[in-house]
């Protein structure tokens, strides 16, 4: 049986780029958009066109450039926003307007100083207006994570009637637990009339480190789109990380879910975004961190040298990393030293290795990491007869 397709909606250039310090110019955004298209994302959220003339220009140029993905522009539930977004994406092969409004009580009472009925009317009006420009209209219920399910279902039903093709259920504050977020999706699937006409979408923030877990709970419970960013960049603690959700679905065939992503481009795309945005990737970041396939303790190194799968659940080549690395530190064992020594040209006998290892430990205690040039030094000063 074929797997169910989960659409990947990349918002690196919108939710990701709104982070202080991550701002890009149009040329940089075009390079990233082209790469996202090659990577196989289904939707590129190119920006928030009304926010500035520069952002309008970027969205418009991306709309002209992108060949395969849908190009989407964000709006508030405001007529002018929608008109400007429609103008910015008018050259896209597949244009989408992403409009919405806050639906939680705190958004309704404090941000809008309004009431539930008024917000529902504004949501419907925004979707209907967006629909007069494009066929594909996504609606977001901002702070859906803290919105009462019954009211959220009412809003969803009304915007589907108005023509929404996708319903975005953002956990804007990163508050939900995976069970809770999954149950919200299930509730909407079971209680919204007309839900079969729309795709439910996960949009999770990472304030409690749960964005990836929540998005996966969302798709397990019926959502078929995940909104995410490269390296998980985004407001505050960030958004769901694209590379993580893609590889979770790949590595768990039992979920019966997959995406269109060419995972071999993940590592390179991560580095490209990190460099362009000046946002370093933490070394222990899942999938794309520099330590994601590095082994440094003796026990693990011995296992990986015998068989990679003892300590690796992903083949590094599948995400564009040429090979796992065996890092030499004072915690490394003989097997790792022999392996790295062989890589730089020394085939050591057992006796030679014992001698070199003693010298290695003395050296390694003084350094964070022992590199190739150190290995030469260690072997040459180890009093071993290399000819024997
Ligand atoms: O986090 C959020 O709620 C958003 C919406 C604007 C989609 O980014
Ligand atoms: Zn967001």
From TrEMBL:
Residues 6-267 form the Pyruvate carboxyltransferase domain. GO terms for molecular function: 2-isopropylmalate synthase activity. Its EC number is 2.3.3.13. Keywords: Acyltransferase, Amino-acid biosynthesis, Branched-chain amino acid biosynthesis, Leucine biosynthesis, Manganese, Transferase. Transmembrane segments: none annotated. It holds the Pfam family HCS_D2. Pathway: Amino-acid biosynthesis; L-leucine biosynthesis; L-leucine from 3-methyl-2-oxobutanoate: step 1/4. The keyword Ribonucleoprotein does not apply. Coiled coil: none annotated. It comes from the Bacteria. Belongs to the alpha-IPM synthase/homocitrate synthase family. LeuA type 1 subfamily. NCBIfam families: PRK00915.1-3. This is 2-isopropylmalate synthase. The lineage of its organism: Bacteria, Pseudomonadati, Bacteroidota, Flavobacteriia, Flavobacteriales.
């Amino acid at each position: 049986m074929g797997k169910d397709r989960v659409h990947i909606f990349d918002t690196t250039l919108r939710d990701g780029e709104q982070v202080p310090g991550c701002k890009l110019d149009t040329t940089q955004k075009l390079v990233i958009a082209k790469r996202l298209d090659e990577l196989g994302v289904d939707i590129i959220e190119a920006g928030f066109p009304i926010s500035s003339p520069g952002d309008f220009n970027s969205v418009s140029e991306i709309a002209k450039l992108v060949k395969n993905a849908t190009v989407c522009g964000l709006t508030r539930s405001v007529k002018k926003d929608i008109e400007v977004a429609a103008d910015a994406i008018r050259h896209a092969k597949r244009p989408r307007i992403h409009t919405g409004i806050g639906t939680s009580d705190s958004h309704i009472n404090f941000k809008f100083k309004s009431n539930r009925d008024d917000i529902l009317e504004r949501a419907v009006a925004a979707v209907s207006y967006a629909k007069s420009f494009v066929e594909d209209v996504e609606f977001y219920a901002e702070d859906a994570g803290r919105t009462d399910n019954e009211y959220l279902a009412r809003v969803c039903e009304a915007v589907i009637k108005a023509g929404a093709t996708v319903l975005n259920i953002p956990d804007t504050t990163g508050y939900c637990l995976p069970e809770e977020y999954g149950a919200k999706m299930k509730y909407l699937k079971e209680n919204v009339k007309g839900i079969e006409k729309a795709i439910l979408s996960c949009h999770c923030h990472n304030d409690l480190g749960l964005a990836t877990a929540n998005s996966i709970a969302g798709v397990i419970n019926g959502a078929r789109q995940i909104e995410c960013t490269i390296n998980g960049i985004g407001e505050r603690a960030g958004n769901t990380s694209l590379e993580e959700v893609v590889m979770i679905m790949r590595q768990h065939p039992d979920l019966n879910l997959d995406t269109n992503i060419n995972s071999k481009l993940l590592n390179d795309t991560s580095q490209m975004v990190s460099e362009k945005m000046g946002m370093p990737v933490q070394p222990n970041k899942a999938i794309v961190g520099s330590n994601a396939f590095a082994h440094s303790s003796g026990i693990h190194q011995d296992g990986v040298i015998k068989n990679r799968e003892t300590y690796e659940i992903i083949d590094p080549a599948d995400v564009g990393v040429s090979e796992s690395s065996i890092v030499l530190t004072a915690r490394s064992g003989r097997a790792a030293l022999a392996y790295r020594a062989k890589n730089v040209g020394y085939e050591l006998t057992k006796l030679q290795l014992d001698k070199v290892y003693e010298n290695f430990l003395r050296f390694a205690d003084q350094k964070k990491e022992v590199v190739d040039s150190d290995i030469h030094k260690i072997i040459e000063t180890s009093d071993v007869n290399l000819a024997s």
